[in-house]
Every structure is written in structure tokens, then in C-alpha cells.
Amino acid sequence: MPKRSEKVIDYSVFLGGTEYLGTATADLPEIAFLSDTSKGAGIAGEMDTPSPGQTSAMTLTLNWNTVERSSIKLLAPVVHALDLRANIQKFDTAANEYTESALKVTVRGRPLSGGLGGLESATAMSSTSAFSVNYLKVLIDNEEVLEIDKLNYIFKVLGVDYLAKTRENLAI
Question: What is the DSSP string of 66-111?
């Protein structure tokens, strides 16, 4: 019987692997492949053809409860290394008990924007920090399941690098 994922118990955001940044929610990057429409002889109409490993721009957004010193620090126009570490609650249907799983999302990105949010009594400020992501790695229970490194032509899914041949052909 499967272990069913239920929810995030909690998570933390770190800068440079060690500096805890504060209380925020995160909108993680969406992975969308670049594609073009193919048509012509041998094709009945049109079809979108994605380019393996070539992705659209990826964005990470952190939504802060209040303006934090760390959220202001993230406006510095440099590449920031961020770790989002989560504890996932699962339910083991065979054993009828809860289990936990580690999720770690590592990104390197440059700041795109930083909103200070609003001020209202007894309400979160909803300030934001948005980043253009050029590197993304996802670990589940310390096993790498996804790595995208746009600048080094790496696109790994479950250990298979779908840009290895491209790197070889381009002699990168």
C-alpha cells in the first residue's frame, strides 16, 4: 500500500545554506518547456514541439508576513543562493501511521522585484521578494530528483541528464 502525501508540516528559508531568513510563504518556480509549432508535410495539421531541457524563465516569489531585514537584504543585485527546506507529512496506509519526508528546494537567482506590502492593523503586510531563477535543484529524502542549471546546460530528471548530448555536441 502507498504512503500518501498529505501536507507540508513546516518549512524554512535559508540564505547561503545557513542564514535563516524569516517567516514567508513561497511560490516555487514553474517548469515550462520552450516550444514551437511544427506543421508541414507528414503532419496532419499543427503540433507544439517542446525543446527538451530548454525552459521558459523561472521565478521564485517569497511572500513575507512583514518587512524583514532579510527581505530587504535580498534586494541586493547579486545572485542569491536560497534553500527552502520542508517537512512533508505522509500517511502509510499499510501501517496506519503517519510518516515524514524531507523536501529541499535549492535555487540560485537574481532579484526581480521587492514589494514592501501594505500596512493595516492586525494584518500581515504581504511584502514580496521575486527572483529570476537560473539554477534549481529538488531533493526528496536527500535523493536528487530534479536539477536545472541553465548556465551549464544541465537538465536532470531522476538522474537522467537530458542536455548531456547537447553539451557534447556544443563542446561545452
Answer: S--HHHHHTTSSS-EEEEEEEEEEEEETTTTEEEEEEEEEEEEEEE
Sequence-ordered list of residues with C-beta below 8 angstroms from that of 44, at least 6 positions apart, any chain: none
User: Over the stretch 105-120, which tens digit does the pLDDT of each residue have?
Assistant: 999 999 999 888 888 8
123 pLDDT above the threshold of 90: no
Tell me the pLDDT tens digit for each residue of 41-98. Answer: 888 888 888 888 999 999 999 998 888 888 889 999 999 999 999 999 999 888 899 9
Q: Give 54's strand partners.
A: none
Please give the single-letter amino acid code of residue 44: A
- Which of the 8 DSSP states describes residue 40? S
Q: Give every CB contact of residue 85 below 8 A, 6+ residues apart in sequence.
A: 11, 12, 14, 102, 103, 104
d(CA 90, CA 97): 9
Rounded-to-10 torsion of CA 19, 143, 26, 111: 60
Question: Strands 127-140, 97-115: parallel, antiparallel or unpaired by DSSP?
Answer: antiparallel
- Whole-angstrom distance, CA of residue 10 vs CA of residue 29: 19
